[in-house]
Amino acid sequence: MSVDESHRGLHAEQGALPGEHPGRSADPVIKVDGLAWLELEKPDLARAEVFAHAFGFATTYRSATELHLRGAFAGPPCLVVRAGRRSRFVGPAFRAADPADLLRLADATGTRVRRLPEPLGGTAVDAWEPAGARVRVVSDVLEHPALPTQPVHTLNLGDDRPRTNAVQRPPRAPAVVQRLGHVVLQSDRFRASLDWYLDHLGLIVSDFLHFPGQRERGPTMAFIRCDRGATPADHHTLAMTLGPRSRYVHSAYEVADLDALAAGVSTCWTSATSGPGGSAATSRAARSSTTGVTPTVSSSSTTATGTSSTPASSPGGPR
Description:
Blueprint: H1 11-14, E1 32-42, H2 45-55, E2 58-62, E3 66-70, E4 79-83, E5 88-96, H3 100-109, E6 114-115, E7 123-128, E8 134-139, E9 179-187, H4 190-201, E10 204-209, E11 221-225, E12 238-242, E13 247-254, H5 258-274, E14 279-281, E15 287-289
Parallel strand pairs: 1-4, 5-8, 9-12
Antiparallel strand pairs: 1-5, 2-3, 3-4, 6-7, 7-8, 9-13, 10-11, 11-12, 14-15
Helix pairs in contact: 2-5
């Protein structure tokens, strides 16, 4: 039987070796606070909305050319989808920690601060990283109030058995998306793109991956988090991998638990097979479609346990 050793040799297990990438910038332009939303283009917004509702999103705004999809937690939409000739990932939008950071970023990138349309509110700076992806940083955007979330089930754990002879079944309904978790991007200019995010947005590396037996050649994938000081942050908000072309890989969304996800898979599958793509479930509580830009869903509330106060030379635990 073969053993998967893809996570062997992570920085988290032994720290950076002398001369290796430090995993952070010594003097970043700003430090973003989190991932705000992702922007996509789809040729058929009506079909995209049908699939999104079966997936677990709710609509906050809909026009002939634009669709905003949100999770249940308070905040801006998770996805901004605009009408386009083909399915296309446009780029991520990050939240600035302070409105003044937009001025600093605009000055550093030779761009300008501009006002966002009314359905989003706030202001933004658009910049382009070396592989050509547009990266947006926003501030003071419209915050939608929280929606009801799915209740979690009562579990018997160890000697604690609060449920005895009581049947419980999750409803066959879409797993309610709670929030946007992370996005994974592939870059044909991996090192340049990585350094750009660290230098301009103040992100820091939680873990590096290398080709087996080729660590001396440098990392080929990075799991990157927001530097929020002592405030806990997800292990990664952005993951980047080296590849032959720059593209979107997947995005992940938090749901209540595995039961909610498993019960919702059938509704997502039914919509997908008659709509814009197919879907499947994995053991990592992920759901994905074959459209190339419809996101995956990553499980549950365990995603926000990392802490950005961990030094980059000895990053947070393995993925």
